[in-house]
Amino acid sequence: MDRTAQLTARRADRDIAYDPPPAVDSPHAGAARVLEENWTGTSTVPSRGLYPHQWSWDSAFIAIGLRHVSPLRAQTELETLLDAQWGDGRVPHIVFNPSVPLDAYFPSPDFWRSSTAGRAAGAPRTVQTSGIVQPPVHALAAWLVHRADPGLSRARGFLTRVYPRLAAWHRYLLHRRDLGGAGLASVVHPWEQGMDNSPCWDAPLRRVPPAATRSFRRADLDHGAAEDRPTDLDYGRYVRLATDYRDGRYADGPGLFAVEDPAFNALLIASEHALAGIARELGATGTARHARAERLTAALIDRMWDPASGMFLCHDVRAGGLIPERGVSGLIPLLLPTLPRDIAATLVGTAHGPHFGLGRTTRLAPSYDLLGEAFDPHRYWRGPAWFNTGWLLERGLRTHGERDRAESLREAMLDLAVASDFAEYVDPYTGKACGTTRFSWTAALTLDLLHDCEELMDSKGGSLG
């Protein structure tokens, strides 16, 4: 019996676990129960209704939490995702479950046509996937999963098997997606960055003619209120970008939408640091990985740091120049251990200042500028607070010595996760649940926050392993 079963079942008095058994109605047991409900046998869906397949960065965050209840399931979560990796190294943002009806989610496998349209890029033949990617949290997740149970990991050869795949994934991003020539990865669709509907995408999306509304059916509106979801106009632009990418056989180039995003690249850098740890575990030095991470950090600062805004901004590769919108993405580089002290201090000030109000007017950092014209506390990624970005900021605050602020954020996240029934996202002012509930990464990251964060601290005081 693994830890999830132990947590979700009533225990006999003689049962002994390697942690003291929590109460059946504890946050720990409740979070574990959500992950059990959403487990398919090989991976975890974000939610049974709205997101019935496997999502890439969701699985990375889910594995980070799962390692506390079942390191074996956490390893399996990542292995299942990486089994769908393409020959060119990309890790697709969705791996489709063939037992789910096509009309349960759009865009469905028959839209992406991965096994045919993606053949030249090495799409797998035995499983259907999307053709775009999501933020590269995977190496960081793999390293933390290994550290949760090194004996099991070594016995199964976990790192030996996933390291080449993770290295190929990073090569793809650093070479095929260096569309701006500065050494950083670009996203070619808002869905790739993960913060799909952010106002940061409004300007570059205006270049994209929308697909006709009659050409697709939005399954997301079956599960969420229209006023909380992307508009039909924006969704039509998402569909047009995805259609053009598919029809171009998923070849990478600076098309209508190409943006360097600070969070996407910060997570790539964090995962490079994690790959260095994995390399050391496997008998190499890891020096080259750390050096690459430091070069990428310098490029990130040179390319996207905006002193006037007090944060990082997205860089529009197609138009050239920074996009003058403050999204939570621009705070995520706080995660990086080698960020210069003055920049880290400025980011902390911006997070807790009037634009994000963390710990003052908001309990969790909103996804977009409180003072921005496009701010909406309920509409998808245009203001609501998300638990994964909160988790990343909490790690970043600890990394740079802001332990009191990190602890306040941790307590707020735990309180709101339980009170909202592990909501997908919440109103940043009130904490009211938005989107769907019993959401997997919210439950997983709750489990992680319930455990001692000291295990994440490296020899430099960083949080990357």
| Computed CA radius of gyration, to the nearest angstrom | 21 Å
The gross shape turns out to be: globular
Summed up, the helix count is 18
Widest sheet: strand order?
3-4-7
Question: Secondary-structure element order, as H and E?
Answer: HHEHHEHHHHHEHHHEHHEEEHEHHEEH
Low-confidence stretches are 1-19, 453-463
Major sheet description: 3 strands, antiparallel
Question: Ends: how far apart?
Answer: 29 Å
Query: Structural class of the helix and strand makeup?
Result: mainly alpha
State the helicity in percent bands.
40-55%
- Provide the residue-averaged pLDDT: 91
Beta-strand portion reads under 5%
Would you mind describing this structure in some detail?
With 465 residues, the protein is mostly helical. The chain is 43% helix and 4% strand. The chain is built from 18 helices and 10 strands. It has a 3-stranded antiparallel sheet with strand order 3-4-7.
Q: Could you outline the blueprint of secondary structure elements for this entry?
A:
Elements: H1 3-8, H2 27-37, E1 54-55, H3 56-66, H4 71-82, E2 94-95, H5 109-112, H6 114-117, H7 138-148, H8 150-156, H9 158-176, E3 186-187, H10 190-193, H11 202-205, H12 232-247, E4 259-260, H13 262-281, H14 287-304, E5 305-306, E6 311-312, E7 315-316, H15 341-351, E8 385-386, H16 387-399, H17 403-419, E9 425-426, E10 433-434, H18 440-450
Antiparallel strand pairs: 1-2, 3-4, 4-7, 5-6, 8-9, 9-10
